[in-house]
Amino acid sequence: MKIIHPLSVACLLAVSSLSGVTEAQSFDVRLDPSVATTPLNGRVLLMVSSSQRFRPGENGTPIFGVDAHDLAPGETALVDTSALGHPLRTLADLPEGDYFAQAYLHIYTTFHRADGHTLLLPMDQGEGQSWRRSPDNLFSEVTAFHVGPQGERDAAAPIAVTLNQVVPPIEPKVDTDWVKHVRIQSKLLSDFWGQPMFIGATVLLPRGFNEEPGANYPVVYMQGHFSSRAPMGFGSGRGFDTFWKSEEAPKALLVTVQHASPYYDDSYGVNSANMGPYGDAIVQELIPEVEQRFRAIAKPYARVLTGGSTGGWISVGMQVMYPGFFGGCWSFFPDQLDFRSYQVVNVMRDKNAYFTQHEWSQVARPGMRETNGNISYTMEQENLLEEVIGTRSRSGGQWAAWNAVFAPVADDGYPAPLWDPLTGEIDRDVAKAAREGYDMRYILERDWDELGPQLVGKLHIYVGRMDNYYLEQGVYRLEKFLEKTDSPAYGGTIEYGPTGGHGWSPFGRNELLGVMADFMEANTPKN
Question: Tens of pLDDT along 413-431?
Answer without folding.
Answer: 999 999 999 999 999 999 9
